[in-house]
Structure formats: C-alpha cells, structure tokens
Amino acid sequence: MKRLDGKVALISGTASGLGRATAVRFAREGALVVGGDLDHAGALDTMRLIAREGGTALVPCRLDGITEVSVRAWVSEAVDAFGAIDILCANADAVRFGPVATRPHPDFSTTVRAELDSVWLSAQAAWQHLTAARGCIVALGPTAGLGISMTNQHTAHAAAEGGVIALTRQLAAEGPPHGLRANCISPRLIDTEESRAHLAAADHPIRSIDRHIPLGRCGTSDDVTNAAVFLASDEASCITGSHLVVDGGRSAVPPGHAP
C-alpha cells in the first residue's frame, strides 16, 4: 500500500516549484490531489503531468489564495469531487526584496498577505473537513522566518514566514480535540527552476550560500517532498506542532563557523 493511499490532499501553489513537486509526489503516494494556483494554466499542466503518470488530480478553479471567496470555492469543489479533505498542504511564496527605508507599505502588505494570510484562509476554509477526517495540515514556510539576513533585504518575507511557523503551532494547539495535526516545513535554498532563475545574477548575494552549507549542497525538491509525505502520512500520527527545517544544517551553524 502507498503511504497516502486514498487520502484527499488539498495543495496550493501547484503551478510550479515546490507546489508542483509536492502535488506530483503526493499523487505517486496514492493521494487524490486537488491543486490550485493563481496561475491556473500552470496548475492544469501539473494535473496533466499527474494524469500521465496514472495518478488522480483535479484543478477545479483558478485559486486566488488571498481572497476568501476564491479559497472557499476551491475547498467546496474539492469536497464535492471527493467527499472529504484529509490533508491540506499550504504552499505560498512571494519573495520581494527591498530595503526597509524605501519599501512602500503596499509592497510589504501584499507579501504578507500572499505568504501568511493565504495559509490562514485555506486552513480556516478546510478546517471543518479536516477535523471530520481527523486529518492534518502541512505548511511550507521558508527559513526566512528563523532569523535575519545581512544580505537579503526581505523584511516582509521574514515577517510572513515567521508568522507561518507561529500560525502552524497555534493550529496544532487547536487541533487535538478533533484529532487534527499541524506541522511546518522550512526549506532553504532549494534547487528549482524558479530559484535558479532568481539566482541568475552573478552578483546576487545568496549565490555563495551553498558554499557554507554543512552538508555541502543545496536542497532538492525531493528533500522537501520526502518530509511532506512523512508528516502527512500515518507514520507521523504522534507528531504535531513540529517545525522541520530542510536546509542541510545551515541554520544550525553560526556565521563564520561553516566550512
């Protein structure tokens, strides 16, 4: 039996990157995947990829993760199609760099809404279905929420992702009376098409980070999806409120102490 056999998995941000990788991996593990993204065409491409591999996936509508009406419609379509929701994998990322002194507030608030509000909205909309199924939430919140960066000016990103970690822990605190678990994964510098494009500039400060990772390499999509499958599976039935960092040991090593 596959590890997620027959479970209905609601996954946001499936048009590309880690969202797409998670959707494909969950389907390989037997989950019935309901994807969604603002990039509806990209999410449909992911659905077709899953179908070509023999999996089951649905992309019922274009998902605007920061609009309540859109999120609730997405959740309702999933329940109408499959009758339940067992897993919510909340994946959203909207990194924008800029110094705090000159960054406009609308830019800050847009990032926070895209990265933090979207997790809260999807959790709230799916809550009654997740509790009915005694299901689980897996949130993806990059390591920007763990500490500061001296080179990347990303105040909104750091604030939002720190909020995702705290929000997940609070969801974990409210879930046990209903048998619901909630955990967070924080990946750092994962090798995807998007990250490679982001790091294309030779002078980008983050390009040198991989030389200071204790394990000596950037992470891969598989590294993250391995963690997500575990936390979503029954193997993790006694794990809730945890924060699993996938960064090759980088966050554990003080500056100047890495090789």
Tell me what the structure shows.
This protein has 259 residues and is an alpha/beta fold. The chain has 7 helices and 9 strands, in the order βαβαβαβαβαββαβαβ. The protein has a 7-stranded parallel sheet, sandwiched between helices. Helix 5 links the parallel strand 5 and strand 6. The longest helix has 28 residues. It is globular and about 50 Å long. The model has no long low-confidence stretch (mean pLDDT 86).
Show the helix and strand layout.
Blueprint: E1 8-12, H1 17-28, E2 32-36, H2 40-52, E3 56-58, H3 68-82, E4 87-91, H4 105-132, E5 136-140, H5 155-174, E6 181-187, E7 190-191, H6 193-198, E8 219-220, H7 221-232, E9 243-246
Parallel strand pairs: 1-2, 1-4, 2-3, 4-5, 5-6, 6-9, 7-8
> What is the helix tally?
7
Residue stretches low in confidence (pLDDT < 50, at least 5 long) are none
Q: Give the fraction of residues assigned to helices.
A: 40-55%
List the strand order in the largest sheet: 3-2-1-4-5-6-9
Rounded average pLDDT: 86
Task: Give the overall shape, derived from the CA principal axes.
Answer: globular
- First-last Cα distance: 42 Å
SSE order, one letter for each helix or strand: EHEHEHEHEHEEHEHE
User: Strand fraction band?
Assistant: 5-15%
**Classification by helices and strands:** alpha/beta
Q: How would a crystallographer describe the biggest sheet?
A: 7 strands, parallel
